[in-house]
Amino acid sequence: xxxxxxxxxxxxxxxxxxxxxxxxxxxxxxxxxxxxxxxxxxxxxxxxxxxxxxxxxxxxxxxxxxxxxxxxxxxxxxxxxxxxxxxxx
Length: 89
Known about the structure:
The chain is α+β, with helices and mostly antiparallel strands. The chain has 3 helices and 3 strands.
C-alpha cells in the first residue's frame, strides 16, 4: 500500500483522511468522512486506478493561484460594472 489512512489528532473531528503521493511526488491529503472502512476503500480504489493508468486527480489539476483568480475577477468586474449598476436602480 503506497498511501495511508489516518485520523487527525489535533482536531475533535472523527473524520478519516487518506494520504498518498502523485507520480510527480506531490503529496495529496483528502478528507473522506467518519468511516474508516470508506477511507480504506477509497485509497485502494485510487491505487488500483493508478496501477491501471486510469487515475486522474482532477481536483489537483484545476487549482489556480489566487493572483490569477483576482486578475480574472477584476477584468470581469470592470467589464460588467455598468450593467450591474443599471440593474439595481
